[in-house]
Amino acid sequence: MKSTQNTHHSDHRALGRDLGIFATDPLAGSGLALWLPAGSVIRDELERLARDIARGDGCVEVHTPVLGKRALFERSGHWAKFADDMFPPMQLGDEAPEEQLVLRPANCPHHAMVYAARPHSYRELPIRLHELAPMFRAERSGVVSGLTRVRQINLDDTHVFCRPDQVADEAARALRSALHAQEVLGLPVDYVRLSLRDEGPGYLGDAQLWAEATAALRNAAASSDLAARSLPLVEASGEAAFYGPKLDLQVRSGDGSDGSAREETIATVQLDFVQPERFDLRYDGADGDSHLVVMIHRGTVGAMERVTAALLEQYDGRMPLWLNHVQLQVLPVSESADAVAREFVDALLAHGLRAVLDADGSLGARIRRSRERRNYAYAVLGEAEIARGTVQLTDASSGWRGSLSHAEAVAILAQAYADRAAPRWPVAVSPDDETPAAHRE
Fold first, then answer.
1. Which regions of 120-174 does DSSP assign to beta strands (E)?
2. Is the pLDDT of residue 417 over 50?
3. Considering the domain boundaries, does residue 436 fall inside one?
4. Does residue 259 sit in the same domain as residue 382?
5. Of 15, 243, 322, 330, which has the highest C-beta tally within 10 A?
6. Confidence at residue 59, expressed as pLDDT on a 0 to 100 scale
């Protein structure tokens, strides 16, 4: 799981500003990121990855409102635990306090309501409900920061409702998918944390349920072969959710404001025996009786904001091909090459690739501009290339440079994009010379 990417670990806030990834504005409010076009590409791709993994795991998509009655969160326990971190309730006329509406601090109560919308048999479990869902935290202005501490979090969120005998398998499935997501992203997970309760107040549920949940997560970690990934399992008291223990994928990314290493939980698997009891979430068992389900909270890709911040710092802003907002910048040397360059760009666009035609300024300036903007690759088209039906292509990430036909370039880039992988170029050449010899100024 350790990445071999040569990283600079720049601050994502500076990269986000310089590369046009996201912005903030006092008029919009602190901690509320404005996703700019380049950042929206990253977020869209992350959401697509999250959906692909969820569907591969048998999850079904749902959509739920960002608002809920105060009574909903009182029932779930969030009001008692997180009221200070929630936005104030909205009073509608002279309605009773329990009728007040609240921006949700978590998505699980709504998913509990989806499960409760109809009866369920033991034979149809597990049911896995997935949603790319926003939730809200009333972070104070002094602590919001970039994309890592925000007031709206857009989360890849799945809740599994299963029988007790399915818990270990479902937790292991969730952990494997979370690890797979980080491998695709190229983020180096430092360790898996088994987050346990401590002796302090605020935890819900009896000790026996917690012991069973903890044992199930240990079994899930053991069956996920963490050793093969060189990932230690570290137990941490006091890091559990208020409703149950969890497995957290921990990533150290960049430096904190005081110069220390900053650590983030980037994906998680949480067991919950409390919410099913509070919402009376049941299934009809083989014995004819009604039984409480077990609820598993799972996130694979994680929060769009935190993951984007980690990716920007991991890759110093030059995103992998599948995440990059400009996958190929096409540079005609002169006006006589514009028509062929446009045909090449159109072919790239027709294959779903993100390509742009850049004809403004000298070739050297345009190449520098492409590198400064952290575009993935650029292709030069001059008279010699037009005569041969080729482009001179440079992969700015790996340094690969070579001559390819238009069809070859499209096919290689399209395959790499589909695979979420680095392109497989046909030959290796020196990465030292940025400008093809025929086009040097």
1. 127-136, 152-162
2. yes
3. no
4. no
5. 243
6. 97
